[in-house]
Amino acid sequence: MNKELCTLLEEMPVGVQEVSMQGFPLLLVKQRWGELAIARQGAQVLHYRPAGAAPVLWLSDCLKPAPAPLRGGIPVCWPWFAAHPSDASQPFHGVARTALWDISIARNTDTSLSLDVRPCDTLLEGVEVSVEVNADASALQVLLHTHNGTGTPLELTEALHSYLAVSDVSEVTLEGLQGCSYRDKLRQNAEYHQHGILAMTESTDRIYFHDSVTLLNDTGLNRCLGIAKSGSGSTVVWNPGAAAKDIVDIGLAQQPGFVCVEAANTFLNNVQLQPGQHHSMGTTLSIME
Questions:
Q1: Residue 190: which domain range?
Q2: What are the residues whose beta carbons fall under 8 Å from the beta carbon of 103, sequence distance 6 or more?
């Protein structure tokens, strides 16, 4: 967890504050139900902690300077996931994650929070995109909404690239992927079958054909995190393992602290929107009893 963000939240009173952290404008919320931090860059939720619990999201302690993409939290990958399908000059994971967004508070009480987040400028001509954030003491929900207002069909890929905080990635397991086929991005997208519960024992970058709930069991934190989703046909699981030494905003010291379990629609199941059609994809993170 990013030490500077922790300090900002510890020192602030109950309520809402707009702050700048290393050049990134943030909105911080602290209430009886818990804490949330979201960046205007990328509409990116950086921190969620229900009262009395450990943080659910991981954020790098060595961020690249703004306006580089923020490493951690829940990056919004839109309107494409990974590399652009036809133009290598375009930014990895789309234009949404480095754009500036306006954050409107729809509800803020001592029991829950709702935010409506919309880009300051048009990201894709004729296409409306927004992010909805709902949080309380039991769950964090992030929804990515897309409306095709053009006169032509729209094809998109997308992801909510959740970095989940763990005690040690080598000690956690993921349930719910058993029986699913997956493409292994570290093995030329070869297709395999998941037999049994997934343990993260090595560098992992997989796209699962999966549209339901995943459970993250973390004995070190003594908790089980439920990862539900909607409007998503792929679940991406990623941790760089030893390759983290070459990722400047992760490094080997931070690599054990997270695993990405992402609601996505990848090249395996891209979204086809006809003129006038709407699509929503969401992820919900909840601490299970």
A1: 3-288
A2: 27, 38, 40, 43, 115, 116, 117
